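Bench notes, afternoon.
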Amino acid sequence: MEKFKLSKKSKERLETVETPLQELVKRVLKKSEHDFGIPPYGGKRTDQEQNNLFHQKPKVTMLDGFKKKSYHQSGWAVDIFIYDEHGACWDCIFKYEHVADLMKKEFDLMKAEGLFKESQKLEWGGDWSGWRLPKDYPHFQIVG
């Protein structure tokens, strides 16, 4: 029996991203000690949705969706939010780190199975550093 399941809304949001990324998220949720879901705009975004997030206060993205594109716009990025006893927890960094470790391991397994191309890599926003790339713990993207 599965410990956690995606809600109907999270499933709908996840279904907007590329199929291998959907499978990665589903596999990780089955193995995770932490429940998580997909927030609004956590899946594929239109150019305008990306631009709206760019103009949102406080700023949630550095990419405007027109001049600077997000991997969300291609369907190769997903954001998660981890639940704790109070609801969605954006500051539970150690929980995001645990899920990110699972994502990385599962990505490597799926790559070995041929579900991702050899040229593709998984990037986690929690590994980003510097002023141009602030840490983004909920964010995962497939590049390459």
